[in-house]
């Protein structure tokens, strides 16, 4: 079962929106989701790799 290790919240999205990267809120949400997915993939890969050698 997938586990969300990194979770972003509305406060972080609002912060990046205030910094003005010229991105809309839906674009920022999409970017945050992509980054969260990448981080979760890396962590789950490292976890599986560590279990293999135990």
Task: Describe the model.
- With 54 residues, the protein is an all-alpha fold.
- It is built from 2 helices and no strands.
- The protein has helices at residues 10-19, 25-52.
- It starts with 9 loop residues before the first helix and ends with a helix.
- The model has no long low-confidence stretch (mean pLDDT 76).
Describe, in short, the structure shown:
By secondary structure, the protein is an all-alpha fold. The chain is 70% helix and 0% strand.
Secondary structure layout:
Elements: H1 10-19, H2 25-52
Helix pairs in contact: 1-2
Amino- and carboxy-terminal Cα gap: 21 Å
Are there runs of 5+ residues with pLDDT below 50, and where? none
Report the order of strands and helices.
HH
What is the 3D form? rod-shaped
Key phrases:
mainly alpha; 2 helices; 54 residues
């Amino acid at each position: 079962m997938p586990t969300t290790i990194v979770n972003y919240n509305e406060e972080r999205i609002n912060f990046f929106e205030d910094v003005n990267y010229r991105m809309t809120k839906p674009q920022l949400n999409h970017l945050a989701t992509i980054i969260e997915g990448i981080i979760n993939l890396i962590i789950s890969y490292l976890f599986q790799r560590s279990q293999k050698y135990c």
